[in-house]
Queue: 2 jobs
Job 1
Amino acid sequence: MLALLYGGAFLLSGAAALAAMALARSAHQSAVTHALLILSGLFGLAASVGYCIELAHGVVRVVPVYATALFAFFVTPLSGFFLALVFLGVTLTSWYALGYLPRYHTHYTLPWLDFATSLFVLGMVGTLMAGQPFAFLIAWELMSVAAYFLIIADGSRESLTAGFRYLLMAQLGFLALLVGLLLLAGGDPFASWAAVAHAAAALPPSARLGAFLLLLVGFGSKAGLVPLHQWLPAAHPQAPSHSSALLSGVMLKVALYGFILSVGLLPAVPFSWAMLVIVLGLASAFFGVLHAVVENDAKRMLAWSSIEHMGLLFTGVGLLLALPNLPVGADAAALTAALTGFVILHALNHSLFKSGLFMATGAVVAQTHTRDLDRLGGLAQRWPLFSGAFLALALSAAALPPTGTFFGEWLLFQPLAIGFRSAAPASSLGAALVLAVVALVGGLAVFAFVKLFSVMFLGRPRSSAAEQAGEMPLLLTLPPLAAAVLVSLSGLLLFPLLAQPERVRLLGLPFASAVLPGAAMSSWGVVFALLGSAAAAAAFYRAFARRTIRITETWDCGAPLTARMQYTATGFSAPIRFFFRALVLSKKTLVVEPVVVTNPWIAKRRLSWATESFWEAGLYRPVGRAAIAISASVRRLQNGAVQFYLALVFAALVGVILFAL
Amino acid sequence: MNGMLFILQGVVTLMLAPLMVGLVRFFKARFQNRRGAVPWLPYVSLWSLFAKDMTITRYSSWVFRFVPFVLASIALVLAFVVPTFAYGVVPPFLSNLFLVGGLFAFGSAWLVLGGMDTASAFGNMGASREMTLAALVEPALYVSLATIAFAAGSWSLDGMLAHEAGLSWHGGALPLSFALGALLLVALTENARYPVDNPATHLELTMVHEAMVLEYSGPYLALLEYAAAVKLTVTMLFLFALALPFGLMHVGASPLAVVFWYIVRFVFASFIVAFIESVIVKMRFYRMQEYLSLALFVALAGLVLVLMQQFSF
């Protein structure tokens, strides 16, 4: 039954691709394709729910979906969880696409876009279900290449550049994965994962290290880990918004799945490798959130924040890998459970709120035709319901208390604090430093999302584009709203289960509070406390306050205010840019354009301002320059003398023979 | 009994919060050779604000109207979950240190939204500054609280107090001196006091908190000011309950000692805040990262101190 449902979901996404091509000339093509994708998502969700119920009853099994000698697809509990994320994301974004795409039917070639979207979904589902390296790599490549066509869908110059960078990184990553997986599998791509793990155990440590590093590069580059992250904020926002939601909300999780799967294939992970993962995760989280704070393009800001959250997730995975080698004593079991809970809950929450935010931002862009935060504002008055949904998603992304994300991140913060009491002072201090960085990231995330919401929706419109925005259609409001509701539910329903793994079976116990050694948290308790106090405050106000309200102008010291006197997004994040000026390289130049040629004093002056990434300036540029310099010096070999070329061929031949001997 | 104490502790905090603000102002006035107003003036001004009309700018949305209620409800929760004179009464899941830190951040975020929904550069500037401070203070806040929690072996504020109350002063509070110092720096930031913000001015060069609430008037302003007073009271009383853990209420404690020490801590905390504001100057906003890095390093030094104590036994 489950196999049938999973298989049905898999086939339906393939059918969506076929429908996109077959109905290319029909006016209903897009609606049919996305209806099939929604159906595929619902099949998959039904299968996931069934699987969950089985697991809750203690039946742990692998669901075989399809197997031949060449391909094997099955679902394990691990891939089942990530599949649920994919199907959830597909259902939400395709629902949204039904309302979103018709507005852009002249902008995109819809049949091709929908074809690429369906193949992209097919690739993700295939990657997660793959039972051996061969199927995994084929599906992974299908996903990567289909994503390229999503990124370049609008055909603009900017998209093509971003797409090229993405494709380059994706292919490099694929090569790393290919070599890494084949190294582990001992050269047999058709071996099942269990056989790969068996082969990996027999490898010499140096080969294992090589495979680990290659896989870290392959999956890390897809997940946007520093320093291989530079393509992500350029590429994800260029896709149409429902595709950006899939790319950022869901595809990154497939990369996380790949990484977890491949470290599961290794017999043991030494402490230093785990430290590498933690350091890379923290660096990604920090640089991601820092750029999210200073970024003024709404969709690119969301992409930077995805790097932050993937960084946090990899930090969590790294901590899990490091735990067996840490002197935490009796706490180890509880910490493992809590950190696992963090990875699960945070992956789910991130895919929900990030998909929701991309969809909601896409809706704002569809109405105002700008992604520039400096040109938005004043939208909350016009769209109360929509802005409420957006605010709920933004507060979730900032991981503030009553949202589900807070409870997810609590499962990262609290274990770090418990790590203080390990048996060695060095690991206590290490836990404190990690906690400090994660806390800073959390604080900056609040900054980034408060900025995003407030400059988009509050105050007065900063441009006529924002001022003349029309009604927000319900079809664009509902999917983000659904995502917001689901994030809240994850805190209320999933957190109590995950925080107490032994109670997973007692599904009817929402009031259970999480008990880590000495620490407790209850999502229901917190939500009720806040709601109760809000009710008390409102009742007090109604009972005692004089409620006569006069609507006036903003206090203006006597001189009329204009919308341009408000802070812009650039101004709002100025203090952070200043404090971190060593890392966010801000370039201000005064552009002087003479008005009268003879007199240099009469000139138009304006300030041109741009930020540049630390990695772009410090790593990418020097590496690129070095590569060009080396190839320029190698080019001197090409001197046109045939005799010299023959000598080179001969030398190469001799070299190969010597090497072979 | 515990339920009664829980409610008593919250209600006492809620009732005395404006008095703390009044006492700080009173002491400050005396430092400046002024007579100053009576310490209970804030009660009168809050009440008169409640009886006034409100003006609301026409550029603001529903968010602006939500802010006072969100802030007031956070203040209510804080009053009940942050222990000020009793221990063993707050459920541990409500006084978890990360929840309290998260509630502070949640309040800051909403205050900033209110400041941004005014269409005025005053509110916007305060909002930008408040958000910066709230974001950068987090590492010091969590490291110092987690250090105290680690020393106390409990992750709830309530449990920390219980642990301190059971130890002698030089065995309990003294090793925490650095962590408490860092927490004091954090508390000054969270409550917008010197050297971070000047609470007594509306001069745009210096203001953070006051700029954000500039557009609020009448009952909404009263709610916001009351919420700020509760926040100041709970942070200061908790800090000083850790530093001077005498006469803390639990079953079987002498009520006279509890009342005496509560009054001592209350007056002393107000005096210290006023004292700090009278002897140091406000720092430039663009030097705040030095102040906040200092707070983080003091907190880390506090952890080293606690580790030294733990591993030397």
Job 2
Amino acid sequence: MTNRHILTIKNLSKSFDKVEVLKNLKISLGLGEIYAIIGPNGAGKTTLFNLITGIIPKDAGTIVFYKDETKQKFFGGPGGEFSKKPPGRRRHENNLPIDITKKKSYEIARLGIGRTFQGNRVFANMTVLENVMFARQLVEIENPISIMKSTHKKLLNQHKKNTGLTAGEKEVKNLEELLKQEAEQRLDFVGLREVSAHKAEELSYGQQKLLAIARLLMADSRLLLFDEPTAGVNPKYAARIAEIFKKIVSKGDKTILFIEHDMKFIQALGCKCLYLEAGRCPWPFFELEVIMKNPEIRRKFMGM
Amino acid sequence: MTNATNHQSPITDHSSSPLGPSPSPLTRLYRWKYSLLLLPLLVTFLFYIFTSIFSAAGFRSINYPLHMLVMINIYIILGFSINLVTGYTGLLSLGHGAFYGISAYITVLGLMVLKIPFLPALILAILFNMLISLLVSLPSIRLKQDYFVLAVIGFQMVVYTILYNWTGVTRGPYGIPGIPRPKLLGLWQVGEVWEYVVLSYIFLILVFIYFSKLDRSSFGRVIKGIRDDELVVASMGRNVNLMKVYIFAISAGIAAFSGALFAVFATYIDPTSFGLEESIFIIMIIFIGGSGNLKGVFWGALFVELLPEMLRFLQMPDAVAANLRQILFGLILIVLMRFKPTGFAGDYDYD
């Protein structure tokens, strides 16, 4: 756990048709932490996610995201381009603050912010493996001209040079194989390896949630936003997801921010909570127990 | 559903993998899907033999099925063009009749006004089509689904009106007769019907190769993702609008092959062949045959071209046949949507 910031939100406001959904929100997130956003429905939680990821425009305020220059950019990490310099050099460029207030959603995703959606939006017609492979963006290749090249040897060799993948590893003939390997790694991480050949729509709801997590991992996002990751899953899956979250931030290079209504899940994680109510976040981050001690919150939020 | 006892490792299970086994360069030549290209030949000739045996007039000239084959190939190429936009990306386009028509007229412009040979005229038609597609896609790509469809229909109407009324250039409803037969590379003068068959097959093979490469590429995956869930694709860093503009341009370029072929094959073109009705006809190819994959296009084009022939074989007078064809199309579509929404051989179901 470091003291480095990853996201800073200042004076963020948003209203829909004169209904003020967020008012002068001020949040600062650190790297390598897990944060939970809790609050009554309609407090603006999903709106906050939509604003951070650039899906809807902001009324006022700034959001600054700290991008990792060194880690990204090899083989379609956030940024999606093949690196011209190997990672590790020019460390002072690490943690660049970037103002993402005005950026489009795909630009923000390329910087390293990923999110899941309420209710599991996966690509129903693709297999699980394809779903995960999709998450890795290859900007140089995804255009109608370069499909005529089949092996992209130059890009593959550049990737091998950048990541030090030599003859020790299993030899990959083309980028598709490489993508497939990486996707299988991610599926192993969440435990969906057995079903990777199934169509995504055949999976159970809980498995689809895991698939959404695997996709975010494949995209190598630095800031992961989860919208209700345990909504509608049984406690066994919820525990599994809690384990996965802990594993994800264990290296200290990713941050998780999630919206949740399930208090047990948050207690299992023991993470800091952000209580959002009517567009305001009146207190800084505290552990869940501390927030629950506040009788007013208990009354408004938990109804006790 | 997940079968707990079936622990087939996903690495070796290629049944539903899009990647399939890695082929050596030699086996790549013998991929089964290239046998699809023989399908038009086979079906057309079977149809010819069948109808000739059972008809009173007996065997007609061999040119007759060859003529049908050229038209079928033209419509297969159009089928690929619409399949790219509608079947793979999910953008319903009722404007491909316009692209078809524009490329036909531009080919004629090249051949008869600029007096350039056929292949340069074809390239001119392809580039012009792509340019015109920008005129459609750039304003309307941001519109939500239904409004996008309306915008494309609007484009189709505008193009038809221009072709019909700009008589100074297009001769309007009189059409343009006497289109010269193509001479390729200064060597091959295409005149006989069988030569047109070869030419149409060359174009078809080129389009087919491109399309099958796209089907298995990363770009193809992105495109299919846009069809499934645009928002998620954007949240994964893809510039969705740019992809859509690309797809529209490529689709229009593919349609140009058909337009150029048709112009030099029929040697007469007029605006009525390129109106909204034609656009609907083109959509039928993938709705009936199947969208979202390669083989659906072949079956669809064969169906829509051979059905009128079948009616003629059943001795319907032409006046009745034309209307009956439309009625039958409608009925078949309704039945298909009820029992097999993916079309006869399709992969994707519009819900």
